[in-house]
Amino acid sequence: MDKIIYDSARCKGCYFCVAACPAKAVSITEQSNKKGYRIVAFDQAACRACGMCYMMCPYYAITVNKAGGARKRMSITSP
To answer: Which residues contact 72 (CB under 8 A, 6 or more apart)?
Structure first.
């Protein structure tokens, strides 16, 4: 099973995930999504599944799979 699930259609090319990855497992590609943004690629072998890319992505394009299950974004609402 892949450590990272990436929805390239949601990506808007901010590349926060590239800068945040301590393992340097995220790289910018020459490919573009339908919106015209250059997308990223994940080196699954180098990935540590630390979740830094997931935490930095403002467009919810990344999900991290850990051995215990997938991390999912949660909505936080004020009382």
So the answer is: 63
